[in-house]
Amino acid sequence: MTFEEARAQFPVLERYAYLQAGSVGPLSRGTIGAMRAEEERGLNEGRGSFGAFMRLLEAREALRGEIAALVGVGGEHVALTASTTDGCNIVLGGLALGPADEVITTTDEHFGLLGPLHMSGAKVVVVEPEPERISAAVTPRTRLIAISHVLWTTGAILPVHELRAQTGIPILADGAQSVGAIPVDATGLDFYTVSGQKWLCGPEGTGALVVADPDGLRCDRPSYLSQDGYEQDGAFVRKAGAARFDPNLTPAAATAGIRASIGAVPEWGYERAFEIAERFRSRLGEVGCDVVTPDERATLVSWRVPADGSAALVARLADAGVVVRDLPGRGLIRASVGWWSDESDLESLVAGLGATS
Ligand SMILES: Cc1ncc(COP(=O)(O)O)c(C=O)c1O
Questions:
Q1: Whose CA is nearest to atom 16 of ligand 1?
Q2: Is the pLDDT score of 357 beyond 80?
């Protein structure tokens, strides 16, 4: 498929410079087609038949395998969740931490990770998102390093594999801004989260959690999907592998939608996404934006603005047909540049900035 054909799958791009995959990606005709077909089937044939349920279970296992392949692990290590936040809650609940334990995180994490960390009962140690500071914060009490693979603020890539190897401490990598944006290999990491609705352009309410050692994590938030048999008092036989952590039955339409989205990622996607993100950085720099350019960077492009004016600037850009977001309180505006983005999006952004300055 050529770039033009692949881009044409996203109708929103015909109308807007849509640069918001870091929140929710653009939807493609293929994804919506797959979801509609599934909704139609439910409408006409009923959702609760034995056949429909078996079909859904089969689709789930296929999806598990597809996500596993995407991040380089076996399907037995993948739980199907609704979000990254879901995955973080499963890990933090399952580790059963207490006040004598420490978890290390950074100043640049999303609440989807921070909330579960705060509720874990452990002491949360917060450091700047720099590898040396993270490893220097390790003490004999450290039970977990919980950080983003790609920071949602600046798009910096954190060296999660190196930190795991150097410190020997289990790591929870928040993959919300990485999976679908950059190549990801989750092997060697203890826990890795996936958000389906962002860079994979899937429906909302889809995601995954990679668990390297499912038997080493308590299943403390069981669902019907967690068990292979149970007693009337609730005692249950855990499913094999990470499937025991599946927290909910993703709707059939969303399951079909995320499968279609993953199947449509072009093989040149990562390379193109990196190149066009670099193009955004250099062009924005040329027109005077104070672009944040970390040494190791993914596909989020952020630039500094006065913090008190960032929301108003985002609103003015929206009026100009440019969809970006600000990072409240941080004085940053963020453009999410995907493999589907092109020069016309960039020029709309530049024109919008010119018109609003
Ligand atoms: C780094 C990071 N972590 C977690 C989240 C939350 O993701 P989800 O909605 O899949 O829970 C986001 C969403 O923007 C994010 O950027």
A1: 152
A2: no
Most ligand 1 atoms within 8 A of CB, residue of 89, 172, 177 to mutate: 177
Ligand 1 pocket list (CB less than 6 A): 23, 83-85, 110, 112-113, 148, 152, 174, 176-177, 195, 207
Dihedral of alpha carbons 225, 229, 234, 235, sign: negative
Quick one: CATH architecture of 3-27+267-356?
Alpha-Beta Complex (3.90)
Task: Map out the domains of the chain as residue ranges.
Answer: 3-27+267-356, 34-263
How many CB atoms sit inside 10 A of residue 232's CB?
5
Q: How far is the CA of 249 from the centre of ligand 1 (A)?
A: 20
Q: At what angle do helices 343-356 and 269-286 cross, to 10 degrees?
A: 30
C-alpha of residue 115 to centroid of ligand 1, in Å = 11
Q: What is the mean pLDDT of residues 225-248?
A: 98
Q: Note if the pTM is more than 0.85.
A: yes
Residues near 297 by Cβ (< 8 Å), separated by ≥ 6?
Answer: 154, 155, 156, 157, 277
Residue 229 banded pLDDT, cuts 50, 70, 90:
very high
pLDDT tens digits along 149-176: 999 999 999 999 999 999 999 999 999 9
Looking from the CA of residue 151, the nearest atom of ligand 1 is: 1
Question: 315 falls in which pLDDT band (50, 70, 90)?
Answer: very high
Query: Would you state the pLDDT for residue 356?
Result: 63
Average pLDDT, the chain: 97
What is the architecture, at CATH level 2, of domain 34-263?
3-Layer(aba) Sandwich (3.40)
Q: Phi and psi of 53, rounded to 5°?
A: -65, -45
What are the start-end ranges of the E strands in the chain?
Answer: 17-18, 78-81, 102-106, 123-127, 142-148, 171-174, 191-195, 207-211, 227-230, 236-238, 290-291, 300-304, 322-323, 325-327, 332-336
